[in-house]
Amino acid sequence: MSLALHLNHTSLVILELAAMLLSAFGLSRITKLLKLPNVTGYILSGILIGPHCLKWIDASMVENMSFVTDVALAFIAFGVGKYFTWSTLRKSGAQVLVITVLEALAAAAAISAAMLLIFDLPLSFSLLLGAIGAATAPASTLMTIRQYKAKGHFVDTILQVVALDDAVALLAFSVCATISQVTESPEQLSAASILLPIAYNVLAVALGAGMALALKWSERHVRSAYNRLLMVVILLLTLAGLCAAVDVSPLLACMALGMVHANVTEEKDLLFKTVDEFTPPVLTFFFVVSGMRLNVPALATAGVVGVVYFFVRIAGKYFGATLGAVLTGEERSVRRYLGMALVPQAGVSIGLAALGERMLSPEMGDLLSTIILSSAVLYEIAGPALAKLSLHLAGALNPAAQDDKKKQPASAGLSDGLQARESHA
Fold first, then answer.
1. The domain containing residue 55 runs over which residues?
2. In this predicted model, what pLDDT tens digit does every residue of 62-89 receive, in sequence order?
3. Has this prediction a pTM greater than 0.85?
4. Per-residue CA distances from 79 to 133, 234, 301, 414 (Å)
5. HSE-up of 46 (CA within 13 Å, CB side)?
6. 13 in a structural domain
7. What is the C-alpha to C-alpha distance for residues 214 and 218, in angstroms, rounded to an integer?
8. Which of 8, 92, 233, 344 has the most CB atoms at less than 10 Å from its CB?
9. Which is nearest to 31 in space by CA: 47, 45, 51, 19?
């Protein structure tokens, strides 16, 4: 853009950040008119202003914002942790665990089998793609639930499944990464290469739990809501930074922080609500950046492989969720419609794809990255709509909330999806 030639670097970056938020707001107004969740607008806005369409934001800016994924995952995981109270897990923990393992591994197995049998792709590539496909993005599913004020057992099951889902995917990826190392570079295989990632994840979870206990202790001395929020942000950024230093996802550690905090404090709802009020801009940037990362010309590279991956993963998720619900004796709505709510895929899968790309040959690594980045955007477009449909068919939507939404103007920002209240535009 000619304007960019007359701006210094600082002003250009600030204006680009403003353009990202403005485009997200504008596109979300359009998607609301189409009865689509806000996150769809955020993703589309990223594609539109990104390096391959209008080019308002160049590729170097997108690359420099890669840290947004880790920060957003930290806040997402912390928020999901509050749904894992001991009382809830005692009531339905075993059932949720069975459903989660089956839906995640069924998708992974279906994807790996399709890559091997249909396209005759390398075992290492097929296993890594399958493990990444097991992950579900909790942010957009949670956003859809909150936006439409859905409640009930069906919603509780979704929340617990999507929270545990990424933990299963991370473990599956660790196993598949080890197998990939054997097939790709057997001479580099060692006990350290197998045990270190496991040890780092265990230490990260322990650190997250320890930070939650420290947060509980600090409540005696920190009274103001602002200072408590400041402490949580410091802890989450510290966890995310330490995890990035050893190349592990911050998801499990930050989830442990949220889960332990939810179980040891009596004022968990207040703190989680305060954090929710802080995170909308961060999560908006996350979805916009995800859209900008889509390499539109590279869609032709993925071709039929990407299309097969897209549909096989959905089928695997649906079949696994249904099987798990049947085996655990879940109610009819869960058996029929849970799989539809597990389609979104973004942050965790993109992070794992970056790790997997380094483990494969350049050609296979590029293919893996292209498939995950492109399909993540498509899943985030189709996923929220399918999540909303599943909530409707399961009878989980709040009729009163729907009536209120008809009387009120469309609300602005990501607070629609991540806060219980609505802010008017």
1. 18-418
2. 888 878 878 887 887 788 777 777 776 6
3. no
4. 23, 15, 37, 14
5. 30
6. no
7. 6
8. 344
9. 45
Strand partners, 411: 424
* Cβ neighbours of 104 (radius 10 Å): 30
When pLDDT is cut at 50, 70 and 90, the band that residue 41 belongs to is confident
DSSP one-letter code for 411? B
Phi, psi of 303 (to 5 degrees): 50, -135
Q: Distance between CA atoms of 207 and 78, rounded to whole angstroms?
A: 14
Burial class (CB in 10 A: 0-12, 13-18, 19+), 190: exposed
Q: Which two tokens stand for residue 140?
A: 């957009």
Amino acid (one-letter) located at 420: A
Residue listed under structure tokens 């396209």: 119
Flag whether 425 is in a domain.
no
- For 137, 156, 160, 366, the CA distances from 342, given in Å and listed in that order, are 8, 14, 12, 26
DSSP 8-state code for residue 151: -
* Residue 275: inside a domain: yes
**Residue for token digits 């607008």?**
41
- Of 60-64, 137-141, 185-189, which one has max mean pLDDT? 60-64
Residue 421: enclosing H or E segment and its boundaries? Answer: none
Structure token digits, residue 4: 């960019």
Of 373, 383, 380, the C-alpha closest to 43 is 380
How many domains is the chain partitioned into structurally?
Answer: 1
